[in-house]
Amino acid sequence: MSGTARPDGPDPEAARPAPAEPEGGESACWLDKVCAACGAIQDTAPFDRCARCGAARE
User: Fold this and answer.
1) Is residue 43 within 8 Å of 52, Cβ to Cβ?
2) Three-class DSSP labels, the chain
3) How many angstroms separate the CA atoms of 12 and 1, rounded?
4) What spans are recorded as compositionally biased (Low complexity) (predicted)?
5) Of 2, 41, 47, 50, which residue is the least packed, with the fewest Cβ within 10 Å?
6) Hey, what long-range contacts does 2-5 have (CB within 8 A, 24 or more apart)?
7) How many domains does the chain have?
8) Which domain holds residue 34?
């Protein structure tokens, strides 16, 4: 039985550290895409009028 883990021994997988979470993703600031009147996120930035409520961009 040499080279095999005993059922009651430590788990070799448990000793390995967890992989780090990947960094990245979308930018944190969507302020230039938010309608001030209704809070809708616009598909494009900059925008002239809100696609949901029609309010002019401030």
Assistant:
1) no
2) CCCCCCCCCCCCCCCCCCCCCCCCCCCCCCHHHECCCCCCECCCCCCCECCCCCCECC
3) 16
4) 15-26
5) 2
6) none
7) 1
8) 30-58
pLDDT tens figures, 1-58: 555 555 666 666 667 777 777 777 766 788 889 999 999 999 887 899 999 999 998 7
Q: Do 53 and 34 contact (CB within 8 A), yes or no?
A: no
| 44 lies in some domain | yes
46 within some domain: yes
**Per-residue model confidence as pLDDT tens digits over 9-23:** 666 666 777 777 777
Which residue reads 């949901």 in tokens?
52
Residue 49 in any domain: the answer is yes
